[in-house]
Write a structure and sequence with these properties.
With 224 residues, the chain is an alpha/beta fold. The chain has a single domain (4-223), classed as Rossmann fold. The protein has helices at 14-24, 57-62, 85-105, 126-138, 163-175, 188-200, 211-223; strands at residues 4-9, 29-36, 47-51, 69-72, 110-114, 145-149, 154-155, 186-187, 205-209. The model is unreliable at 163-168 (pLDDT under 50).
Length: 224
């Protein structure tokens, strides 16, 4: 694979921070542009950090830049938006969908999206429906490749402590061997490795990955 320029959304999050580290240390990635709400305070010669008002489409577009691959790890929680479903939608749907449109305008060829295991545009559950609607809209953009990752419960060290989520995560990890593969928790760093290796494979078309695929891709990344 020829060296690529990557753009990342959600670089401060659980998965995004792991992915950013991998991108900066990948010989196949020559430049990383991180669009962020707040400064990351990361220093690296390959990193270009740009603080953006994602609610301002014109500013978002103007700061997009040119490159090859878009990684969308953006996401929030109902707690963070204080139960405001419209605000939730602005973050989890509008930002990646706008990014896809701006990416096509700016010549990007590949889009990599972190979605959710039960994403379904027709679900009666708000979160699953929102993720499904986001997937369906992203698929309408003419990228050379679209890689959609559907992890179940994500585990890893978060910046913010979520007691209920932490307790649930430990329980799910304990029960993991008894769960169907698609429902098993997966480590954020494993997902990040899988996302990057999917790009290394240089496939075309739309691809969907769940637990078993993610583990396999991450294993291939470690052996590459």
């Amino acid at each position: 694979m020829q060296p690529k320029k990557a753009l990342i959304l959600g670089a401060s999050g659980l998965v995004g921070s792991q992915l950013l580290h991998l991108l900066l240390h990948s010989p196949q990635i020559e430049q990383v542009r991180a669009l962020v709400r707040h400064p990351l305070h990361w220093k690296h010669p390959k990193l270009e950090e740009v603080v953006v008002d994602f609610n301002n489409p014109d500013a978002f577009r103007q700061n997009f830049g040119h490159g090859n691959i878009i990684f969308s790890c953006i996401g929030t929680t109902m707690k963070n938006v204080k139960g405001n479903k419209e605000l939730y939608r602005q973050i989890d749907y509008n930002i990646p969908v706008h990014a896809a449109g701006f990416g096509i305008e700016s010549g990007y060829q590949h889009f990599v999206l972190v979605s959710a295991h039960l994403a379904n545009a027709h679900s009666s559950i708000f979160y699953n429906r929102l993720k499904g609607e986001t997937e369906e809209k992203i698929k309408t953009f003419p990228f050379e490749s679209i890689q959609i990752f559907r992890p179940s419960f994500l585990v890893g060290k978060r910046k913010e402590t979520r007691i209920l989520e932490l307790t649930a995560g430990k329980l799910i990890q304990f029960l993991s061997p008894l769960l169907p593969a698609a429902y098993r928790p997966i480590e954020a760093d494993v997902l990040a490795k899988a996302m990057l290796h999917a790009v290394y494979k240089n496939q075309t078309g739309t691809h969907l990955y769940t637990y078993t695929d993610i583990k396999s891709l991450a294993g291939s990344f470690m052996n590459s």
